[in-house]
Every structure is written in structure tokens, then in C-alpha cells.
Amino acid sequence: MENDYEVLQHSFYDRSNVTVIARELLGKILITSFDNEITAGRIVETEAYNGAVDRASHAYGNRRTNRTEVMFGKPGTAYVYLCYGIHHLFNVVTNKKEIPHAILIRALEPTEGISIMQDRTRKKVLDNTLTRGPGNVSKALGIFTYHSGLDLVRSDIRIVDDGFQYKKKEIAVTTRIGVDYAGPDALLPYRFIVRDNPYVSGKRR
DNA sequence: CTGACGATTCACT
DNA sequence: GTGAATCGTCAGC
Q1: HSE-up (13 A, CA, CB side) for residue A60
Q2: Residue A146 Cβ under 7 A from any strand C atom
Q3: Which of A17, A75, A137, A140 shows the smallest number of beta carbons within 10 Å?
Q4: pLDDT tens for residues A10-53?
Q5: How far apart are CA A174 and CA A159, in angstroms?
């Protein structure tokens, strides 16, 4: 990165309101540097998962399994899991140890390493689907389930603040995608998007 | 051990 | 709009 930036510290993630953090993650930059290949993008879509009381969360009812255990770990930890046997979905763990909050990163606007992302995704045509949707984000940045449990403050996956901020008017809040199984909790306003950004997935309002 | 299923994506009608 | 891909996870037997 050429510009000055600061890696988000544990204190950023160690807060009790997961939706506040999800909103603040918009505009931050997610960076991976594996094998000297640096890829990065500005976060433009997130979803909050409110732990034990959220039927849409894997940790609903404080369900602890091998897979969900990292959500009960330190704030600022990566939670990556396999969806539909194909897609590796990347999340950030928030709140204190033992409180399983998480935020799904659903879309990025690419900022660095675009040709590497294109190689990884095997997309022949370069377009806005490169990092649109959580499956594409992980594929483009080279994130896999074996990265689950990594400390985002000191590892090859990091989230940084370069001082950029979206204006309040540029941010919209909607219900989450693909969580119909959660009953009433599917209606919660837990998805945060940058208005009119072409990398935002699914419905735009 | 077994079966059902998923915080998705893409090709196709 | 519909359906397939594809496999780890998890509950239940």
C-alpha cells in the first residue's frame, strides 16, 4: 500500500454492538498477502450476526461445535466456513471472548492485485462480479477455511483504515440475504451496504 | 454411521 | 426464474 494506513486493533472489534462494527467496517480495506501476492479491496457490504440470540447465526443458542468454536474466541479473529460445499465465506469475530458475534464480509471494491484476483477466480471477463458476494470475495483474496482462527491484527489477513469514510447518506441498511430459515430474525436490519456501489451483491434495498 | 442441508454462484430456460 | 454443483457439518439413530 502506498498510502498511510493503520491496522484495526483488537479494541475495534472488542465492542458489544455488532451492528455498529458492521457499519463501521464499510470503507475499511481488507488485505491478504499470501506468498508475496498482495490483494486488497474496500469493504462495501457487510452483515452482522448477533450470536446466541440470533436465529440466523451458527452460534444461535450458544451452540458450540468444532466449526463455531472460533466465534467464541478473541475479537478480531477470522471465522471462515464452507458453504454449499463450494464457497469459503469470510467473517470477522467481534465482542469479548465467549460472546460469539461475527460479521460476514459480503463485497469489496478491489483496490490492489486485481490481476491476481482475476487469476484466482478464473474469470475471463473483468467485471464487477470479481468481488461481489461473499463467495467471490474469498475466492479473489485467496481465503480458505484453513484460515479460520487467524488473528486479523497480526497475520497475512488484515483489515486497515486509510482514513477514508463513506458519508452517512451513502450507506443503506437492509435485511440479510439467504437467512429465511431464521424466521423473524430474517427481518432484522443487519445488512449494511454502500448505495449505488456496483460491487454490492443481491438486492440493493 | 447416515442423511439432510447450507450466511452461494453460475449456467441455462 | 429454476436447478445443479459439491462436501463439511451436525443431529439423530
Answers
A1: 10
A2: no
A3: A17
A4: 999 999 999 999 999 999 999 999 999 999 999 999 999 999 99
A5: 23
